[in-house]
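Table S2 (text version). Query chain:
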Amino acid sequence: MSIDEHSAKSAAPLAEGGKAIWSSKRLMGLGVGAVVAGAMAWAMWSVIQPSTSAQAELISSAHASDGIVDKKDSVVATVNGDTVTESEIAGLLRTGVDKAIVVDRYINKVLAAEQAQTLYADQAKAAVRAAQREVLATLYTTKRMQALRAQVTDAEIKSFYDHNVLDDNYKRWKVSYYLSTDANDVRKTLEDLKQGDKKALSQLKPLVGNGDGYANAAQLPYNLGRIVSHLKKDEFSEPLPLRNGFLVLRVDEIRQDKKPTLEDVKQDIIERLATQKFNQELEQARRHAKVELG
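Corresponding structure-token output:
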């Protein structure tokens, strides 16, 4: 019987989950997910949602106009009394298209927008409101994260590194298992395994079948990392109850990899700390916000 025949849920009572693990060069865990290099925390994810092409263009313009903020935002055209400024077309200019062509196309866009407001007033108001919030939320996230990264101190980075980048996080195990639906069989087999019985040993299967068979605690299937991390080389676990059977583990080998230096993960730590502060600020804003669901 393969261990994959048992669901992760059935193995859940065995362990509380593997210890937070980091890869050799990147931050990998700490309980709430990967650093921004992989996926962003819930608050930032909720701010930045996938955009339509029109929204993406607005957001691009917002980013591209950063350098214009401290300068005079010059007018490039006037359409029916409404001005078109340099900052509005900044994102389009960054694509390399000639400015005259960009302005000409943008005039058509302004005219189309006017027609939308005239012919489809209610839908136009909703679209403008949604686009405005999308751009402003992106602007806030981008600018605030820049500021928070700059505020992270060397002392904070060193403290985070000392408390989280530990040698134990870089241990890797090669593990074998025996699985049976019969309680008596698994107890008898465990005794035979401890005695070095060749027939019993031949029934052991690798817990990780890919690559070299090694894995860190977090990568071991069915939350078995916590169990394995407390075993020594050649040591067997006690029978572990699954929903439909019993599992015995043996640690075949333990490998200690070298942890990265502070310099190796410094930028990841900065990103991590800035993201944490950003999420805290957004959570605080939400707590103070008056939200009424319709």
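Notes on Table S2: Residues 175 and 251 are 5 Å apart (CA to CA). The radius of gyration is 29 Å.
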